[in-house]
């Protein structure tokens, strides 16, 4: 018997698939998680998954689109925020979208490259780095801004892995203080 889903049921199933992917990608990792794992977690067939997403990569694309839109917004308004606010916002992006970030850092270089190019992560991150470095930055201010962003990215990723995809308030504060300390020596973190 053919079951026809209403538009609402299709949206709900799509949201359920993304929720399951967030959990599995965030705990097991993107590379290790199979479509069979996703189907089993949802109690559906792989065919049901493929009805909504043509591949596991399409599921990841849908997950990455969420933080990509947020980083685009952050980059567009980076000059309106202090360096510390920008670093905090980068931490929060990873904390709110751990599955997407963990999947992108899964070790599959082709996955990272494809999504990085599609969403211009490098260009947008550069805008944020320039805003953190401040107007007319010296070479050392640019280096410190890059170091602070790397500290946030790597530190948040390590904290998310350690915390099973969760970032505690204390860990967020510690990460922000460590990244800001990189800028403090250059006199920018207090801005």
UniProtKB/TrEMBL annotation:
Protein name: Transcriptional regulator, TetR family
UniProt domain HTH tetR-type: residue ranges: 11-71
Keyword Electron transport: no
DNA-binding region(s), residue ranges: 34-53
SUPFAM superfamilies per the UniProt record, alphabetical: Homeodomain-like
Classification via Pfam families: TetR_N
InterPro entries assigned to the protein according to its UniProt record, in alphabetical order: DNA-bd_HTH_TetR-type_CS, Homeodomain-like_sf, HTH-type_TetR-like_transc_reg, HTH_TetR
GO molecular function: DNA-binding transcription factor activity; transcription cis-regulatory region binding
Alphabetically ordered keywords of this record: DNA-binding, Transcription, Transcription regulation
């Amino acid at each position: 018997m053919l079951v026809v889903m209403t538009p609402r049921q299709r949206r709900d199933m799509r949201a359920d698939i993304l929720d399951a992917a967030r959990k599995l990608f965030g705990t097991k990792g993107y590379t290790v998680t199979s479509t069979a794992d996703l189907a089993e977690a949802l109690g559906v067939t792989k065919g049901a998954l493929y009805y909504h997403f043509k591949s596991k990569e399409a599921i990841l694309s849908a997950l990455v689109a969420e933080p990509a839109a947020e980083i685009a917004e952050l980059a567009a308004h980076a000059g309106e925020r202090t360096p510390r606010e920008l670093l905090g916002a980068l931490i929060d992006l990873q904390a709110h979208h751990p599955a997407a970030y963990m999947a992108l850092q899964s070790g599959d270089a082709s996955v990272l490259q494809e999504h990085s190019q599609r969403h211009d992560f490098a260009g947008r991150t550069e805008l944020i780095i320039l805003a953190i470095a401040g107007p007319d930055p010296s070479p050392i201010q640019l280096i410190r801004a890059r170091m602070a962003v790397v500290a946030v990215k790597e530190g948040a990723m390590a904290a998310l892995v350690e915390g099973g995809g969760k970032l505690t308030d204390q860990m967020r504060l510690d990460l922000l203080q460590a990244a800001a300390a990189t800028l403090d020596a250059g006199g920018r973190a207090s801005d």
